[in-house]
Amino acid sequence: MDDGASIPLLNGVGFIFGLIGVVALFVQQSLEMFLPLLLPLVVCVAFCTLLFKSQQNDKASEEKVSTSPVRIDVI
C-alpha cells in the first residue's frame, strides 16, 4: 500500500463530507427562514377544511329535516 496515495484519498473524502455539511447547514437555515411564512398557509388550510366539513354536515342534516314551509313550535 502506498502511504503517499492515501493522503489525497482522505482529503477527497473529507472534502465530500465538508460539502455535505455545508449543504445540510444551508437547508437548515433556509427552513428556519421560510417556516414563519408557512404558518398562515397552514392556518388557512385548517380553517378551510373545518368550514368545508361543517358545510357537508349542515347539508346532510337539512336533508333529514322535513321541507314543510310552516313550522309550529309547541312549548
Can you put this structure into words, describing what you see?
The chain is mainly α. 83% of the residues lie in helices and 0% in strands. The chain contains one helix and no strands. The longest helix has 62 residues. It is rod-shaped and about 100 Å long.
Question: What keyword list fits this structure?
Answer:
single chain; rod-shaped; 1 helix; mainly alpha
Summarize this entry quickly:
This protein has one helix at 3-64. The chain is an all-alpha fold and 75 residues long.
What's the arrangement of secondary structure elements?
Elements: H1 3-64
The assigned structural class equals: mainly alpha
**Overall strand count:** 0
Mean pLDDT: 79
Beta fraction of the residues?
A: under 5%
User: What percent of residues adopt helix (DSSP H or I)?
Assistant: over 70%
Describe the largest sheet.
none
Spell the H/E element sequence: H
Count up the helices: 1
> Based on CA inertia axes, which overall geometry fits?
rod-shaped
What value does the Rg take, in angstroms?
A: 31 Å
Stretches with pLDDT under 50, minimum 5 residues: none
Distance between the termini: 100 Å
